[in-house]
Design the sequence.
């Protein structure tokens, strides 16, 4: 069991590398699609804020809307980077063509300069030099149309080079702007979270006790698998109660290409029990569905992980985080922030009564 989980985590590392290897056009298309999707999620959550029945639910949905804005800003950064990569590739190809067109003209100019430096008297006294000059004049007359054509093409290439440089400068400026906007969205989300923490300060004692129990269980458990099972047993015993949610809507917790879906073979020979996503390091990772944070923190060599109890025996496990935002005991909306992605991709699993299930039919 542990080998399968380790293999799934390693598959995430391969996915991160695969994401970097994607064609810039594909990266650009994916990033633009994710930008649109994230903006739509933000609008949806903002509409849900107005429909919420109580203040706590309004706050959770507002937090999910803020998280969607962060993900949209991150997607715009990815799109700007892909656009810049495309421009640089075009510049390199254009520079190669320019060098090819310049070479024969440079050689011709060098030959003409050599002739120009040759004294006229030497042409008269050197045997055969007059015949050579006549032949050279004939050759030059024949080459003139070709030289004119090449010169015109060269001027066009030089103009294209100037245009690409201008586009490159504008793309760099756009990238800086998108990064600044993404940082601003992240700061607004952090400020929102801080206000939430202050409002929930009265519940800190309960959350601290629950966190201590979960931390002790994390230390004493033999494996991640046994840890998840024990948390589920605690829930069934009533120590942690979450209201069942019929027919939850699921989503991937982070944007990026999916390398291994549910049931697909892994390098170890085992089958994937969830999905592994090649997320950009530092990207915001969100809850795939509403629920309560049963665990959030470091777990052995997995780094930071999050376990969300959705109620009705459904639990999500998210691994590959670089850091946690949500804390044990937090109630999160679908799309609420969990943490930041690490360098090796994000893995998400959905369990039903302890058994891994394919969440693909729930994605909406």
Sequence:
């Amino acid at each position: 069991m542990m080998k399968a989980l380790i293999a799934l985590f390693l598959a995430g590392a391969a996915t991160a590398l695969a994401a970097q290897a994607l064609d810039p056009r594909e990266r650009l298309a994916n990033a633009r699609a994710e930008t649109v999707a994230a903006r739509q999620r933000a609008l949806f959550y903002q509409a849900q804020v107005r429909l919420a029945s109580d203040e706590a639910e309004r706050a959770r949905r507002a937090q999910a809307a803020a998280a969607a804005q962060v993900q949209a800003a991150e997607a715009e950064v990815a799109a700007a980077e892909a656009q810049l990569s495309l421009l640089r590739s075009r510049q390199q190809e254009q520079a190669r063509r320019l060098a090819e067109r310049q070479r024969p003209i440079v050689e011709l100019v060098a030959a003409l300069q050599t002739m120009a430096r040759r004294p006229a008297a030497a042409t008269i006294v050197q045997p055969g030099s007059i015949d050579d000059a006549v032949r050279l004049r004939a050759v030059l007359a024949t080459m003139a149309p070709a030289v004119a054509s090449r010169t015109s093409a060269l001027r066009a290439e030089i103009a294209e080079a100037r245009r690409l440089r201008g586009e490159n400068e504008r793309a760099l400026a756009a990238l800086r702007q998108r990064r600044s906007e993404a940082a601003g969205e992240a700061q607004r989300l952090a400020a929102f979270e801080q206000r939430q923490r202050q409002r929930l300060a009265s519940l800190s004692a309960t959350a601290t006790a629950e966190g201590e129990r979960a931390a002790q269980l994390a230390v004493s458990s033999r494996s991640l698998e046994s840890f998840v099972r024990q948390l589920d047993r605690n829930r069934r015993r009533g120590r942690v109660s979450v209201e069942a949610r019929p027919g939850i809507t699921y989503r991937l917790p982070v944007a990026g290409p999916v390398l291994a879906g549910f049931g697909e073979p892994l390098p170890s020979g085992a089958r994937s029990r969830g999905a592994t996503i090649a997320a950009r390091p530092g990207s915001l990772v969100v809850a795939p569905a509403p629920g309560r944070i049963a665990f959030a923190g470091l777990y052995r060599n997995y780094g930071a992980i999050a376990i969300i109890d959705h109620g009705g025996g459904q639990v999500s496990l998210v691994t590959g985080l670089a850091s946690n935002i949500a804390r044990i005991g937090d109630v999160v909306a679908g799309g609420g922030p969990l943490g930041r992605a690490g360098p090796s991709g994000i893995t998400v699993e959905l369990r039903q009564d302890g058994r891994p299930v394919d969440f693909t039919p729930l994605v909406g």
